[in-house]
Design goal:
The protein has 209 residues and is of the alpha/beta class. The chain has helices spanning 26-35, 75-78, 97-114, 139-149, 164-176, 179-187; strands spanning 2-3, 12-19, 47-56, 59-68, 87-93, 121-127, 152-155. α3 (97-114) links the parallel β5 and β6 (121-127).
Length: 209
């Protein structure tokens, strides 16, 4: 996947949303993908936002990636950001069981409640595989969850950058392969998504939402 920060022309614009418990590494994953660096970051307050220009599948793409806060007190603030998202990345920490449990108890329910694209592509990401000795959630559990909820699946590490690029690449390729989302991405060029209310062995590909 090639990227050009100064690129101004693009074929499609896609909105991606990152969700999951506080501290699972959403912001670190986003930073690793957009600027090729790693930092231990403090929890996101409300919502953060980054843009990444990429060339993938022969298309020039503009990715608008929203990084939401995991704390419950920000939940009502972030609900509006689900609107119009073509891709949703659900992140958990393989060393913290509760972050995996909350995927079904909280985050999958929020997607059902707030997502406006019925064909949206969901990606399940098990982060922090660099801490293999502290792992409490097995890869098989992640695969089974992805099958049940119709998600793509990958395990990665924001710290070592293993599979970070592939995580976003797999998601975007699936969006490009979904006609209704491609049409949405084309329409996105005519509207300003920045306005409005706060609105492979490692990859399992299943049927999406």
């Amino acid at each position: 996947m090639n990227s050009t920060s100064s690129q101004s022309e693009f074929d499609y614009m896609f909105k991606l949303l990152m969700i999951g418990d506080s501290g699972v590494g959403k912001s670190s994953l986003l930073l690793s993908f957009t600027v090729d660096t790693f930092e231990d970051l403090t929890p996101t307050i409300g919502v953060d936002f980054k843009v990444k220009h990429v060339t993938l599948g022969g298309k020039k793409l503009k990715l608008a990636i929203w990084d939401t806060a995991g704390q419950e007190r920000f939940r009502t603030l972030t609900s509006s950001y689900y609107r119009g998202a073509q891709g949703i990345i659900m992140v958990y920490d393989v060393t913290r069981r509760e972050t995996f449990t909350n995927l079904s108890e909280i985050w999958a329910k929020e997607i059902d409640l707030y997502s406006t694209n019925q064909d949206c592509i969901k990606m399940l990401v098990g982060n922090k595989v660099d801490k293999e000795g502290d792992r409490v959630v097995s890869k098989e559990e992640g695969i089974n969850f992805a099958r049940e909820y119709g998600c793509l699946f990958i395990e990665c590490s924001a710290k070592t950058r293993i599979n970070v690029q592939q995580c976003f690449e797999e998601l975007v390729l699936k969006i490009l392969d979904t006609p209704s989302l491609l049409a949405e991405g084309s329409k996105g060029l005519k509207k300003n998504i920045f306005n409005g209310p706060p609105p492979q062995a490692d990859t399992y590909t299943g049927n999406c939402c």
